[in-house]
Design a protein that fits this description.
Number of helices: 12
CATH class of the largest domain: Mainly Alpha
Number of strands: 0
Helix content: 55-70%
Largest sheet: none
Shape: elongated
Number of domains: 2
Order of helices and strands: HHHHHHHHHHHH
Distance between the termini: 20 Å
């Protein structure tokens, strides 16, 4: 790790240390569903939908008994809702039938579920089970490259290189630091560089 990378991570920690997962959940299953829903959707809208959804259908068993159309109707305000309905229903049936309704804290099993990729598995492992993992979404990818923490063309490289420079015990927290910085300042379009609390360290701003 370079001195500048070390300073950037320390600054991110100072600024965002009190901020964690923006998705609301009470258990691993709720987080799994919320994370599947969050693709191309805001956390605010996902939280609104899951509040209503879980009040009616609180677990994998309840959701597994729905039809695709019934579930789609519950989540239709979310982008790609038809495909997400299909995946959530299929995953719920597997969890209900094979794992007693409990989401297993196992990466291989999680990634075998319909609609669950590495990013979603990392989110669930780190936030629901406290297992060190660093999920790379669009915010983490954009911000870590702009700040010069990594120099990568894809999320796989980004995750690997971030995990190489960040101590394992901080992987889950660093994921949140980078997400919040991306949401609040380092936006995809029109980043708020002049107001950014890291602009004195950012190679993208200083060049």
């Amino acid at each position: 790790m370079t001195k500048n990378q070390e300073l950037i991570l320390k600054r991110l920690q100072e600024v965002y240390k009190d901020l964690g997962c923006a998705l609301r959940f009470k258990n691993p299953f709720e987080l799994l569903v919320a994370t599947i829903l969050s693709a191309q959707a805001t956390d605010k809208q996902v939280n609104k939908v899951t509040l209503s959804l879980f009040a009616k259908y609180p677990d994998a068993f309840a959701i597994a008994n729905l039809t695709e159309e019934e579930l789609a109707n519950e989540i239709k305000s979310i982008g790609l809702y038809k495909n997400k309905s299909k995946n959530i229903l299929a995953s719920s049936k597997i969890i209900a039938e094979q794992y007693g309704g409990l989401v297993p804290p196992d990466r291989e099993i999680l990634e075998s579920l319909p609609g669950v990729g590495r990013k979603t598995a990392n989110v669930v492992l780190s936030n629901a089970f406290g297992i060190p993992a660093l999920a790379v979404d669009t915010h983490v990818f954009r911000v870590s490259n702009r700040l010069g923490l990594v120099d990568c063309a894809n999320v796989e490289c980004t995750e690997k290189n971030l995990c190489a420079i960040i101590p394992k015990e901080y992987w889950s927290q660093a994921h949140h630091w980078l997400i919040w910085h991306g949401r609040l300042f380092c936006k995809a379009r029109n980043p708020l560089c002049e107001r950014c609390k890291l602009n004195d360290l950012c190679p993208s701003y200083l060049k």
